[in-house]
Amino acid sequence: MQVLEETKKPDQILAPIKIEVKNVNFGYGETEILKDINLQVREGEFIVLMGPSGSGKSTFLRLLTNLEKPTSGEILIDHLKLTKEIPDLAVVFQDYSLFPWLTAEENIVLALKKKWKGKKSKKELFELAEQYLALVQLGHAAKKYPGEMSGGMRQRAAIARALSMGADLLVMDEPFGALDPITRIQLQELVLQINQTQKKTVIFVTHDAEEAIMLADRIVMFSPGPPGKILECIDVPFEKPRKRDELFESTEFTEFRDYLLNVMNKGIFEKLSQSEVVKDGGGI
């Protein structure tokens, strides 16, 4: 299977670069967490990060959101190097991160207040909150508190809050990992729709190969860590929009899923082999 950084048709106009990661390394003391990370992401791309636990995917997101600083190298968003300020992006985590003492709409209004900084009235902010809740099919639950909502509803509210911030870049760290299969599929479809209709650039972490294939334009496969490295950047060869039933029943899907798993497993086996070499060399 052909694997390239970017496989674009000669007559296809490339979107501008949204994110550029140049020779990034990160660690604590002598412990390397990420090594030699290089990546370009174009506007509107849906990038999925895959790899075993401990490969540095979530750490990479912390660097991307400016919660951590690279040991060396640099990260640029919209051609600007990250500074002390959090870049213009929205983040959705697995644990929803909603304030339990606020209703769904109040959680969104809180984000809107920060965005508009007194430029809109309270009534206008609540009207906007209603619009974003409707966008994620949660208008009926505007007055509910997080404790009164299911996991899927809470995650929809978290996505609505992220969208309300108006950022072009959406960062999602295993946002559907704790959800039941049906709700997970519904939210996958929702995020795909947001990516395509609102032209959001999405960076999405998952351990699920099928989820990655359904969502991604490209899959960035991380090696086992430490240190985590990028093994391959793999173009997903299925055009969007993708019909789940037809895609999952095809031989091409099965072959591509197996290929992804083989890439990840190969990285794991190579890491284990290196560990054995270290042990043997150390006289263990």
Can you walk through the features of this model?
It is built from 8 helices and 10 strands. The protein is α/β, with parallel strands linked by helices. The chain has a domain at 1-6 and 13-25 and 36-88 and 207-264: 3-Layer(aba) Sandwich (Rossmann fold). The strands form 2 sheets. The chain has a 6-stranded mixed β-sheet, sandwiched between helices. A 4-stranded antiparallel β-sheet has the order 2-1-4-5, with helices on one face. The longest helix is centred in the C-terminal third of the chain and has 31 residues, at 251-281. It starts with 16 loop residues before the first strand and ends with a helix.
Percent in strands: 15-25%
Per CATH, the architecture of the domain at 1-6 and 13-25 and 36-88 and 207-264 is 3-Layer(aba) Sandwich
Main beta-sheet strand count, sense and barrel state? 6 strands, mixed
CATH topology category name of the domain at 1-6 and 13-25 and 36-88 and 207-264? Rossmann fold
- Low-pLDDT parts are 1-5
CATH fourth-tier homologous superfamily of the domain at 1-6 and 13-25 and 36-88 and 207-264 = P-loop containing nucleotide triphosphate hydrolases
* Average pLDDT metric: 87
> What is the level 1 CATH name of the domain at 1-6 and 13-25 and 36-88 and 207-264?
Alpha Beta
What is the radius of gyration?
A: 20 Å
Number of strands: 10
Spatial gap, N to C terminus: 39 Å
The largest beta-sheet arranges its strands as 6-7-8-3-9-10
Secondary structure category:
alpha/beta
